[in-house]
Amino acid sequence: MLMRKVPVFVPASPWGLRLPQKFVFLLFLSGLVTLCFGALFLLPNSSRLKRLFLAPRTQQPGLEVVAEVAGHPLAREPESPPNPAPAVPAPGGGDASSQASPRRRNAWPRRPHPTGAREAATAARGGGGAALGPQDGGVPFSFDFSAFRSRLRHPVLGTRVDESKEPQSLVRARREKIKEMMQFAWQSYKLYAMGKNELRPLTRDGYEGNMFGGLSGATIIDSLDTLYLMELQEEFQEAKAWVEENFHLNVSGEASLFEVNIRYIGGLLSAFYLTGEEVFRVKAIKLGEKLLPAFNTPTGIPKGVVNFKSGSNRSWGWAMAGSSSILAEFGSLHLEFLHLTELSGNQVFAEKVRNIRKVLRKINKPFGLYPNFLSPVSGNWMQHHVSVGGLGDSFYEYLIKSWLMSAKTDVEAKEMYYEALEAIETYLLNVSPGGLTYIAEWRGGILDHKMGHLACFSGGMIALGAEDAKEEKRAHYRELAAQITKTCHESYARSDTKLGPEAFWFNSGREAVATQLSESYYILRPEVVESYMYLWRQTHNPIYREWGWEVVMALEKYCRTEAGFSGIQDVYSSIPNHDNKQQTFFLAETLKYLYLLFSEDDMLSLEDWVFNTEAHPLPVNHSDSSSRAGG
Ligand code: DMJ
């Protein structure tokens, strides 16, 4: 048998290939591999392959940046799904991304992007509102900021007068004084409580409270627009830097839907509309998404408390044994939620508040009145307590402001407002023997002849709404607004400190005074000066500036401490007993309204802006382009 001798140095391959054959085979293989990698990296639409092959860290750049911007560590919380194409086209419609097809928008194209909020903000400024893509902030929608600004009728801060020629030097000096108070309130907060929700000026520390679900910096976010308005630039930059670097949304506590909405969402929205800084828009939207589980109820009427961790919700224990939602709470979301939709392109926010409107429109109203407690399960009123003060107040305010913010197109809101006001006039309005007009509280037909400090916003609201009432009612509403505001001033004037109590009564010969110590406190609330501001703008009657100045003097005398402003426990005692709290709304509202009272009418003109119930300005939705000033 012939045995073929195989050279030892050329072993036979297991496949029986000889050297030249192997060489050719290897050549073919390497060609194939090159072709595959070429296809993987060079051909378009290869993202699916890339996801399969690339390391997990680089799989989802969009998500990564969301985490950075919103302060989330990576992949801790499921992010909400990206928004589809906006139903409402971006104003102006001129920028490239707003013209992109929905398919392209959803594709989240991957290209180099800024990696943090600072860069995001710079990008927005540089581009006059150029869109940040989803990969930049997790909010896949563009908003044309310059187009928005060009539609304003007045410059945001008003027409600047040459200060040296301003004849009213007294007015200017008073405005400067209020600015100094803001600066002092801010510096004190910064020194002792930076990053906490509130300053405690006596103990010189910070306080977190339990309304915000673990969110911090309520004073900062509530202050942003006031600092901007007063041109406290350094302080505004400090506040903005804190939001960029330290405002984290990955919190897990229980929050008040209402308080987070009016203070945080309202503050962020205003800061965005005033500055165009993307960080505020992105954080407002991400925070808005965290509030949505509150609406998971059979009627869609949200419950008052939302758990940021579990996404569960509940009603306040004190609200009819945990069975009710509160009118002022679920009725004061409309303005902010419409703007969340405007800025995100996500219809979910608008749908939530439209549904609330629908429920309220349908339900039977006793004598045309809206009681304060409603079951989010059955959609029925749970008690017949009606009030324009606490529990009811800002619901009425948001009706008339929805009409105004819609550039007078939301006719339903207008009708609901005037119908409600008529019922209030018929059943709750009274004049005291001493001639003071007041709005009482109604308990199933029986009146409590008292007015809360909170109800004193109604003078301003009625003044604001007077102009769009039926011709024959306008003068009447103007007069009513003036009378209510005068009564609220009386509640201040009749105290030793010239500050007003939490509630005041009209019975047993007493008028506009508190009847017990537990109602005699003043916690730096804004409602009375808020009405002075609206009445001043409507009438230019100097009395409102005089009354406003009385408040400034009283705040300085009784509420200013060495380390910030504090509420007092008894307005009838000239020896102040401080409550050790500088409320966030003192910076957001009280000082802002006072400052506006001593400013020109076109500073945050009421033609262009409505104030939310925490005094955060939100723009009127001018849809035309007949602007007179771009701000
Ligand atoms: C603010 O937080 C808001 O104005 C709210 O509507 C009720 N009142 C406080 C200030 O008093």
TrEMBL record:
**One example of a Gene Ontology biological process annotation:** N-glycan processing
Span list, region Disordered? 74-135
For molecular function, the Gene Ontology terms on record are: calcium ion binding; mannosyl-oligosaccharide 1,2-alpha-mannosidase activity
Superkingdom of origin: Eukaryota
Q: Which compartments is it annotated to reside in?
A: Golgi apparatus membrane
EC number(s) on file: 3.2.1.-
Q: In which residues is Ca(2+) bound?
A: 613
Topology in membrane: Single-pass type II membrane protein
| GO cellular-component term (any) | extracellular exosome
> Which Pfam families does the record associate with it?
Glyco_hydro_47 (PF01532)
Which regions span the lipid bilayer? 23-43
Note the SUPFAM superfamilies from the entry: Seven-hairpin glycosidases
Task: List required co-factors.
Answer: Ca(2+)
Q: What class of enzyme is it?
A: hydrolase
Which pathway, metabolic or otherwise, does it act in?
Answer: Protein modification; protein glycosylation
Keywords for the protein's UniProt record, in alphabetical order? Calcium, Disulfide bond, Glycoprotein, Glycosidase, Golgi apparatus, Hydrolase, Membrane, Metal-binding, Signal-anchor, Transmembrane, Transmembrane helix
Similarity comment: family membership: Belongs to the glycosyl hydrolase 47 family.
PANTHER family, per database record: MANNOSYL-OLIGOSACCHARIDE 1,2-ALPHA-MANNOSIDASE IC (PTHR11742:SF28), MANNOSYL-OLIGOSACCHARIDE ALPHA-1,2-MANNOSIDASE-RELATED (PTHR11742)
Stated name of the protein: alpha-1,2-Mannosidase
